């Protein structure tokens, strides 16, 4: 048995990016630990922001983790920094916002968990934080340093293959001119940079269940929420669309293509 720690910014991030991998590793008998930086108390939802939303979202996180087979859930206790309308940092944020945390201090806290668990693997996000959320960028910074402190041998950046995503966005822009195609040109990771393509189709049911656990994130805001739209996709198509999860491991030879998080290049 090996231990994998999945580090995310907010509840529901795990369901969107790494749930299939988490379910797969748990089913294989590995120990899966889920760490979140915040309770997501500033996320869009059809209820007030603050402690009430944070408590509900943490309950949803525990339900998601149970459906994925996680052995442990840890919240670092930072405040949700929120997301501005322009996709950047907001001026009004809590005093303990994750984006304002001391990177070294936060990394030491995460490293303590990695050492306690004797973790062989840590997942974070790519340097851009996927789509640029400030808390996601902090996950990259804090996680990278924590793995260095703890000596965690495998550090994977959870991401999305930008190439087919960008193709789909450009096609959609023909019908929805308001789509900002340029914002997707630097999001996530280019296909050539991805080192791990993990087939999680056998665990699509668990991934869908993890998404469904985050009921507060299926509605709210001015438009249709991404999570709600994903859950409406028919099961066979869901397995196809969400049947692969992508990761980047830095320092591997160019062209490396691995199929399992614990695989090593030959």
Automatic annotation (TrEMBL):
One example GO MF annotation: hydrolase activity, acting on carbon-nitrogen (but not peptide) bonds, in linear amides
Top-level taxonomic group: Bacteria
Keyword Oxidoreductase set for record: no
A Gene Ontology biological process term: glycoside metabolic process
Keywords: Zinc
Entries under InterPro entries matching the protein: GlcNAc_PI_deacetylase-related, LmbE-like_dom_sf
Pfam families membership: PIG-L (PF02585)
Protein name: GlcNAc-PI de-N-acetylase
Species: Acrocarpospora corrugata
């Amino acid at each position: 048995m090996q231990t994998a720690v999945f580090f995310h910014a907010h509840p529901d991030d795990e369901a969107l990016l790494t749930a299939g991998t988490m379910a797969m590793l748990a089913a294989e008998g590995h120990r899966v630990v889920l760490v979140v930086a915040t309770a997501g108390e500033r996320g869009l939802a059809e209820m007030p922001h603050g402690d009430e939303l944070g408590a509900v979202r943490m309950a949803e996180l525990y339900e998601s983790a149970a459906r994925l087979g996680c052995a442990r859930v840890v919240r670092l206790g930072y405040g949700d920094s929120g997301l501005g309308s322009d996709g950047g940092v907001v001026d009004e944020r809590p005093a303990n916002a994750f984006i304002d945390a001391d990177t070294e201090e936060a990394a030491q806290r995460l490293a303590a968990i990695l050492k306690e668990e004797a973790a062989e693997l840590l997942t974070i996000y790519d340097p851009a934080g996927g789509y640029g959320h400030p808390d996601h960028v902090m996950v990259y910074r804090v996680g990278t340093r924590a793995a260095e402190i703890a000596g965690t041998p495998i550090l994977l950046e959870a991401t999305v293959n930008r190439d087919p995503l960008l193709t789909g966005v450009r096609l959609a822009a023909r019908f929805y001119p308001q789509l900002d195609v340029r914002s997707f040109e630097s999001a996530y990771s280019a296909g050539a940079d991805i080192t791990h393509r993990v087939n999680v189709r056998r665990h699509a049911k668990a991934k869908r269940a993890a998404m469904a656990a985050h009921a507060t994130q299926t509605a709210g805001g001015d438009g249709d929420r991404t999570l709600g739209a994903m859950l409406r996709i028919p099961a066979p198509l869901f397995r196809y669309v969400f049947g692969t999860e992508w990761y980047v491991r830095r320092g591997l030879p160019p062209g490396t293509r691995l199929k399992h998080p614990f695989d090593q290049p030959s």
